[in-house]
Amino acid sequence: MPETKSRIFSGIQPSGELHIGNYLGAIKNWVGLQDQYECFFCIVDLHAITQPFEASEMPARIFDVALTLLAAGIDPDKCTLFVQSDVPEHSELAWVFTSVTPLGELERMTQYKDKAARQESVLTGLLMYPVLQAADILLYHAHLVPVGEDQVQHIELTREIARKWNARYGEYFPEPEALVGPVRRVLGLDGQAKMSKSLGNTIGLLESPEEIWEKIRVALTDPQRKRRKDPGNPNVCNVFSLHRHFSSADDVAWAEQGCVSAAIGCIDCKRRLAGNIVKELEPIRVRAAELRSEPEYVFEVLAAGAERCRAIAGRTMGEVRDRMGLRVSALPAAGKHD
Ligand code: AMP
Ligand code: TRP
Predict the structure, then answer these.
(1) Above 60 in pLDDT, residue 252?
(2) Can 115 be counted among the known catalytic residues?
(3) For the range 49-55, what are the long-range contacts, defined as Cβ-Cβ under 8 Å and sequence gap of 24 or more?
(4) Mean pLDDT lowest for which of 137-146, 184-193, 263-272, 297-306?
(5) Band of the pLDDT at 184, cuts 50, 70, 90?
(6) Where are the domains of the chain?
(7) Alpha-carbon distance 263 to 310, whole Å?
(8) What is the full DSSP assignment across 131-154?
(9) What is the mean pLDDT of the chain?
(10) How far is C-alpha 184 from the chain's CA centre?
(11) How far is the CA of 12 from the centre of ligand 2 (A)?
């Protein structure tokens, strides 16, 4: 790939089935970015262990995320897809970065505070989470980091870590920038909170048409619209906001006008939406089923990705060790023992 292309790095946790929030907020962007940039997409299993997890389930979770990303259009001929723990340098650089990261900076991270507040005993991994994220990005000298809005603070910290390290050991790491996509926050089917696996308000990317319909059928609409003949307000209706993501301009106009004039009922609107979601997700589901029957291909993609990354990461760590004096063989006397 030409050196002139800017580098992109992003990560996704193997923390359960991917949903349309992940798809609209992250994956769809990634697929588009592959053509313009040199992209590295990482399944961040070492981040996932900062939350309670089952070791016996982890391999399948990692595999399923890889499979879903490939099915959704992540193309190993255009980008590098790999698993974080396959490249030990991520952990090594994270440790190095603890030497320039003030405790206070980590303690003020919103995600840390939110997650820590929900736990009785807080593990240090949760606090260190953004340091590992900085290592992920800087190991590859990435310039741009496509993420959701909630991650912008972590990218700012990454910039600060790069600055502090560079100030001590010489200019080496670029200061990356967050690239927040057009879809910032997809609401869950409850119409209340962010769509999230842990809240059980998701539509999974690989769900069948029947499952998708069952979920949309009972999704919350405008709570003020009590009867079929009452007009509704699309602006407060989450089903309508999903139309905006999945439907054509004509269908969006049909839903909006039909709702405010009571020409259509919620069930008509939902049926059209379900049809449009199924149409967009169907090719992903079909491709995922094919990939599941050829798992060797998925393993090969991840192995090739890890190999490419280890080469780059190894060079970065070599330079980091040199600049930090972590090499006794740098002493002139060491040469005699070659
Ligand atoms: P996570 O599952 O937290 O690792 O998130 C993976 C990616 O999906 C991140 O870039 C998130 O910002 C994005 N994402 C997750 N949930 C949503 C949502 N409900 N709306 C928009 N983006 C989301
Ligand atoms: N923290 C990110 C999230 O929860 C995942 C992640 C880990 C990441 N390492 C990264 C994202 C590096 C971008 C770059 O979504």
Answers:
(1) yes
(2) yes
(3) 49/125, 50/123, 50/125, 50/126, 50/128, 50/129, 51/15, 51/115, 51/126, 53/15
(4) 184-193
(5) confident
(6) 7-187+295-330, 206-289
(7) 59
(8) HHHHHHHHHTT-SEEEE-GGGHHH
(9) 95
(10) 12
(11) 6
Query: Is-contact 48 13, C-beta < 8 A?
Result: yes
Alpha-carbon gap, residue 105 to 297, rounded angstroms:
42
Answer yes or no: is pLDDT of 62 > 70.
yes
Paired strand residues for 1: none
Q: What is the CATH number of domain 7-187+295-330?
A: 3.40.50.620
Indicate the SS3 state at residue 177.
strand
For residue 328 the two structure tokens come to 């006794």
If phi over 0 gives left and psi between -120 and 50 gives alpha, with beta otherwise, what is residue 262? left
Active site (annotated) includes residue 194 = yes
Q: Per-residue confidence at 337, pLDDT binned at 50, 70, 90?
A: low
**List of E strands, the chain:** 7-12, 38-43, 79-83, 144-147, 177-180
Residue 2 — pLDDT band, cuts 50, 70, 90? very low
With a pLDDT cut of 90, the percent of the chain lying above it is 88
- Please report the pLDDT score of residue 1 as a whole number: 43
> Is 94 exposed, middle or buried (CB count within 10 Å of its CB: 0-12, 13-18, 19+)?
buried
279 counts as catalytic: no
pTM above 0.70, yes or no: yes
Residue range 206-289 in CATH 1.10.240.10: yes
In this model, does residue 338 exceed pLDDT 80? no
Residues having CB within 6 Å of any atom of ligand 1: 12-13, 15, 21-22, 25-26, 147-148, 150-151, 183, 185-186, 194-196
- What DSSP letter does each residue of 210-269 carry, written as one string? HHHHHHHHT----TT--STTS---GGG-HHHHHHHHHS-HHHHHHHHHHHHTTSS-HHHH
Q: Is 15 in the pocket of ligand 2 (CB under 6 A)?
A: no
Phi (first) and psi of residue 123, to 5 degrees = -85, 150
* Neighbouring residues of 102: CB distance < 8 A, sequence distance ≥ 6: none
Give the C-alpha separation, 138 to 158, whole Å. Answer: 8
